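Prompt: May I have another protein with tokenized structure?
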Amino acid sequence: MMNLSSSAPLRHSSKENVQPSSKVEASQAQRPKQRTVLGVLSENQQQRRSDSKGDRFSRPSSVSGSSQHTSLACTSSSGCDVNVEEAREVVLSASGQEVVTKSYHLATETAGLQNTDVRLLLGLSSSPYLESSMQSEVDDSLMSDEDLFVTEYAEDIHLHLRESEMRLRAKPGHLENHPEVTSSMRVVLVDWMVEVVQEYNLRLETLHLAVNYLDRFLSGTALVQRAKLQLVGTTALLIASKYEEIYPPKLNDFVYITDSTYTKGQLIRMEHFVLKVLAFKMAAPTMNQFLRLFMSIHPVSANTENLALYVAELSLMEIEPFLHYTSSIVAAAAFCLALYTVNESLWPDSLSVFTAYTMADIGPCLNELHKLFIRAESHPQQAITKKYKSSKYCHVSRITPPDTLLFP
């Protein structure tokens, strides 16, 4: 059982994330909105050191007898040389045997990074905001139909995305390497990430990228403690927003959304570690990218488009069985399910030719996605369903799913 506590409320407003840095404390003090964050996931097992000015935020309750150190061990073949604080820990070797290695402090310096783009990525935390009135309220990806999904390049883009998705995907069953982390904890974390993305008016692609980074990181490490899972998820959002957003939230905002459960120093160190584990490969294909591409080839109504986005987003919360399918297959299944629900039609011939996917290829994932769609209203976590009940998304989560699917 997960003991969900209210010790770490999510207190932020989408209109207040653009305050100038000189007014950060004042704006944060005025933010009225409160939500429960992760409960047991946000139980930071170390006693946070208060500075000389004191801490304005309530502290999460500590866990009796728990360790104060993060247990993160790189298991990827890329040879990660960054590890965790002040402890010796067990690392899974490539042969499956357990070996004991020394831990290293997470580097806080970015000056040694060789890649100029990475130095820029890590330095974007202090980027200024636009006024809230200038921020777009549309969840459009930077890969817009007008700019990239033009007819003459669509096939090349699709081939590149299909090739990349095989290299930049998480491993099914990756939670087996993390005894303290359960699939239900990850569900709660992703649900919370959806709320953060919505409140800060971030792009839908930012959410999909952040979940990709989260799962790839968990695939390449071992022994992540449950109290550090929210730190990993917050860091994934931080990196994804820097990669995708024109004006990403500031580092202080990411500290604030966890009710200062984690410090700026912890976020910076974890950011460095995550980037190392992911080998700085940030341009991962997502379901959102494939859906946008499919819709450029076969245009659909607003209801069908938003319903496809909704069911695809629902699949982000579930590791089983959706990590067994590639992003393009899940996107095709979401597109197909939305078409069937709205128009009682299935995979169009134009996309069958374009992708070389047949109904036989899509069918198993389509059935799983249909089951997820049916039980969405009764799911314990409702951030996605609530989001898609708004007029912005044509109220598509109110649409009744089909009782059965009839296809060849």
Summary: Residues 45 and 65 are 9 Å apart (CA to CA). Confidence is low (pLDDT under 50) at residues 1-36, 39-71, 76-148. The chain has 14 helices and four strands. Residues 151-167 form the longest helix (17 residues).
